[in-house]
Each structure stands twice: as structure tokens, then as C-alpha cells.
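2024-03-11 09:14:02 INFO receiving multi-entity request
2024-03-11 09:14:02 INFO entity count = two
2024-03-11 09:14:03 INFO echoing inputs for audit
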Amino acid sequence: MTPREPLFLDGVRSEVVEPIMGPLTALGTDPFEAAEVAEDPFSERLERLRGPSAPRAGLLRASPVQRAPRPRPRRLGADPTPQARGWATTPRLAEVEFAEQSGLLDRFVPESERRRLVALGHLVDGEAPYDRFGFSPSALRAAFPLFLALYRFYFRVRSEGHENIPAEGPAILAANHGGLLPFDGAMGILDVLLHTDPPRLARAIVDRWAGRLPWVNVFYARVGQVVGTRENFSDLLEDGQLVFVFPEGVEGIRKLVTQRYRLQGFHVGFVEQALRVGAPIIPMAILGSDDQAPILFDLKPLARSLGLPVLPITPTFPWFGPLGLLPYPVRYRIVYGEPLRFHERFGPEGAEDARLVRYLANQVRRSVQLLVDRHR
Amino acid sequence: MPAVLVTHADEPLGRRIVKTLFHDERIERVFALGAGAAPRSFDRFLAGSPPRVAYARVDLAKHRPMADLFHSARLREAEIDTVVHVPSHGPSGALASRQRAGSLVSGVSSRTAEARLVLQHSLDARSVTSLIVIGSAFVYRLAPGNANRLCETSELDLDPNVPAEIRSWIDCDMVFHAEVGNHRARVVLLRVPTVVASGGFVYLNPALSGPSGLRLRPVGFDPMCAVVAEQDVAQAVLAAVHGGTSGVYNVAGTEHLPLSVLGRWTRRPTVPVPNSVLRAASFAARVLREPQLRASVEGAHLRYGFSLDTRRAERDLGFRPSYRVGLGRAGDGRVQLETSPV
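2024-03-11 09:21:47 INFO inference complete, emitting structure
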């Protein structure tokens, strides 16, 4: 500190005023001064550790036991090339790189079907084996043998009109709904998967209440089904996926045996989305689902109080307990109609016209009803 | 060239942000604040004459130290023009230790008190023109379903029964959100989901916060968690520092993982238990005054997942995730969550 001349106030040498030393602070102390470190703390710390006992200059953490160097992480199957963002597509079956598996489940699934499952793995982008909806190709693979057995031997599904399903790009499958448990959805998804090349996974839209059910919500998500919100629907279509809807909603599974194969009123959201994104709507008739669990009565007030969509009386439920809900071994028949390309005529602005959207939804309903009546 | 002040720089996310700012040539100086001693990784940042990074220990939840800080000569000389506030999030951070002591600052959580003081002093400081804040995406109200795509205008969870840990994030979010339209300083609020760091570390997920070990989750539920690499969060902060916009932005990566998988690969395996067990654990957490524990056993985030709509950040900040989150195998054979550049 350099000596300074004493300061005089008004020329009177009465009091010496010391200048304020150090940096000017308005309040308290400067935290950066308080925590001041050496100009080069790295070298200072290094010097401290370099003492006579330090074995090497570069070892910063003195330790009595020499540790092995920390292993560098190695990537598992990392793909360094960025995948261009576009429609989620799967390769054709002939292009699928397929390795023979020896797992127990693989013994029950023919190679052609296993190729399809491998191809579906391409739907999941990136290294994480899940998409943002929770779809996991490996979970689908695990569930596949059971549903394939149901498809082949229990419901003995026959189908026609697969050529109407586009090979790529966004599209909507609109089907009639029936039966208490959604086996019609499962058989529809499986049928699409088994009859398209490149294989397509139909992403079924499920009701919101399914998201509240323990286990069911996880199962649905892992096998590719999606809770029906407007955002989810448009995201799937914009991603170029095939969306599978039951426009009747819960009303479809509430139908009494006297109303079977009579379609209920359609929700209109799917038509709106089809117009916005420019996706064709493929009418689809599923025959057999209305016979798998014929409802004699629906205890609506009790169902409402329990928070259930339906509380049915069937020939087997509730007399046989939960087992009574299982479907009867009816034969399924699935028919795909010709795509309805409303977007080509009305464009995205058509989605803003509520009356038009309602009219088009009724057109789809009529198409599905015609398919049902023709093939029943 | 901007000079940037970063809070909670001694915690994982703060460290990464300081590192990213240090390596950006457009940043003149970085002032790092923390509750503890300077992290060892800062040694090379603090070296050099003059060093481009300065570090100070400050209690952000107290008015006097904050006033000292913003009136200090060095800060005034440097003319800090950007403040990056990273709320406390680390398992051993200042907030965690204060929460363990069960103390509140003036009746509000420490995180909220810090947010208020940082905002107040930043707006009072003449030189500060940008305030960038990291927020949590768990502030949104979650609905049943396997995917809720949440955008910046989605509803916040203002349910009074929300666990205190999440409530403090919501309060912090609202404190800054109220100043987004401020005419003097631009305020950028970045809402991030679960942050994954290299080496199998995970931050900002209320279900997995705290030290490694077993976690509980409701049986029959396994929500999808949006994840983002910590490098991407730092890049988003950098984009916000150099950008000229203000507003709220969702920042997330492209990957999504179920909670069970996320926990398993970050040394926090989750055990599905019935609701009665969760309720008992929640009651115990209340009695023990352990907000982090309560948030890990209670709340909609244990049942319903979400994904974030990041289109606004892409458009305004030019943010695109450049890191992937996936499984990697460490040299000792252990599989863990890793981040890698695309």
C-alpha cells in the first residue's frame, strides 16, 4: 500500500480521512473477492500435490490405491449417421436383414412372419427402443405368437381387399366395432401386418379411459396403440403412419344383440384429421366381432356409477365370472373397401366446415355399412 | 461480446452450461455462482490471466449476499448483460441440503425464494438485458394416456395437492413467466424434461431425484418419459443467449423411455407397488419433511407420461437436439444410459 497524503476537511487539520481501500462495494463484501482464487489455481493445486511423496505430476487425486483408469463407454449399435426426418417407413420383406433366432417363441412363428416383425423395428427412430407413444417392437414380438394363434386357430380370420391399403404414407382405416373385448382391433392390426409388403403397423386409437386402467394402458402402448387425442392422431398421420379407428367409439361395443351389425353414429374427428393431413380413409368391415359376445342387456346406470363404459349381461357373463367375458370362437371376416379420398376434392380447408365434416363422416359410415351388409 | 452470469454452476447442469459458454468464442466472460466450492472441473476454466471464468460462492436465497453480488465492483465493471438461472437440482445441491434441514425462506421454498431474488436483482441491474431460466417440464398438468404432447401453452398443474417439490418448480416457472413481456429485459424460460447426462446420471425427474437406489411406482403404470441430453440443454441456453427473442420454450430430445427403463439404466430401479403402499410412503415423507421423497411416490407423473412439442424452440431459437440418448456399455460391462452426438 502506498502512503498517501492526509486529507484535510475545510483546511482544518482535525481529522484524517482514510480513503476507502479495496474495490468499491455499495453493500457488504464482494463475493468474487471473498472467493478469490489464485490466478492459476490449476498450477497451484498441482504444485501442492506434487510434494515429495507424489508419485507423478499429473495425478491430481492423491490416492493410496492406484485406481484403474475409468473405462470409456462403448456404444451399443450406435448409428452415427442422422436419419433424415420423414415418413416412418418399413423396408420390404425382401430387403429385411434377417438373422435366424433360436428363442423359444421363434419356434412357434414362421420365418415370413418373423421377417415382418423385424421390419417393424424400423419404425422406431434412434437408439432408444421405444417411440414417444411407448411402442416397443420387442414387446410386440413377445405378444405376437399368442395373437397369431388366435388369428389362425381361434378366430380363423379370412380377409380380402388388402390392395386398398396404401403401401406408404398416411391413411386411416375406419371399421365397425363390436364385442366386449377389443379382439376386433387386435385381429385387424394383425391382418394388416400379415398382408402388406412393406409390412405396416396399424396404430389403433383407443379411448381415453383405457389410459387409466392399470396394465392395460402399458400393454396397449407397447403394442402400438395410442390414446385418442387430437394431437396424437395428427402426429401419427403427419408421421406417415396407418391409423386404425373405430368411429363408433364405445357405443359400438354397447350394442345389444338385436342391433348387431347396425352401425351407430360416427364421431367426426377422423374425417377432420384426414382432410387436414391429406390422408385417404379406407372403410373396413369386420364380421364376427358382434357375435363374439352378444349383449342381452346393458346395465347402464350401474356401469355409470362404477365408471365403466358398459356393464353387460351376456349368455356367459356374469354367470361364469370374468371368464364369461372371453369371446366365443366365431369366425372373423375382414374386408377392406376402396379408399375414400375426400382430401383431393375438399382440401384442408374442408376441415373447417363442420357440416361438411359431418356429411363426410356419414359417407364413411354408409360405406362401412354397405361392406358389412354385402359380406355378411 | 456478452458477459454471462450463471447460477448454481456447481451443480451438474450448471457445470455443463459454464463449460459450453466457456468454449463459445462469442462469450467474453462467464461469472459462475454456486453454493459450494468451485468444482474441480472448473480448474482449467479459472486458469489464465485474466481468466474467462470467475467463480463465487453465494447463497441465492438470501437478499444480502445477492445484493452484495450485484453491487460488486467486478460484476459492475464486467457489465453483465445476460443472467442464466439454473434452479438447484442436483442431489447434493444447496437446495437439497436446505430441504433436509427442513427450512423455508420467508415461508416459500428455497427454489422459489432464489427465483424471486434472481429476477429482482437482474431486473434492477442496469446492464442486464437478458434473463434465461431453466424450468422443469413437470409443471404441466398430465392427463391419462400414453402420450400427451404438451406445448408451451398447455395448462400448468395448479392442483393444491401437487407435491411440494413440483410445486416449487411451478412457482419458479410462474415467477419468471410473469416477466416474459418485460420491456427492459428479455426473459427466456426453457422447460426441460428429464435430463440425462453421460455416465448414467439423470436429473430433473421428480420420480428419480435424489441418490441412486430403489424407487416405487404404482403397479400397472409405466409412463413414457421424454428425455434430453444435458449437452442439448446447454446448447439451448447458448442459443437463447445469442437469440433475440423472449418467451417460453420446450426443449427436449427425440428419445422417450418408460420410467422403469429410465430408472433401471440410471441405477434407480423402480419397484411396482400397490397404491396403499405409495400412500403410506407419501405420508411418511410428509412426516419426515422430505419433499423429494414425497415427489417420488406421489403425483400424476408416476402414471401418465408426456412428450414435448419443441417446434417453437426450433423456429425461434434454432434449437435442434444434436445428442442422442441410448444405452451404452461401460468398460466394466455395465449397461447404462449414455449420450452421444448424432
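2024-03-11 09:21:48 INFO post-check: The two ends of chain B are 29 Å apart (CA to CA).
2024-03-11 09:21:48 INFO post-check: Chain B touches chain A through 65 residues (CB under 8 Å).
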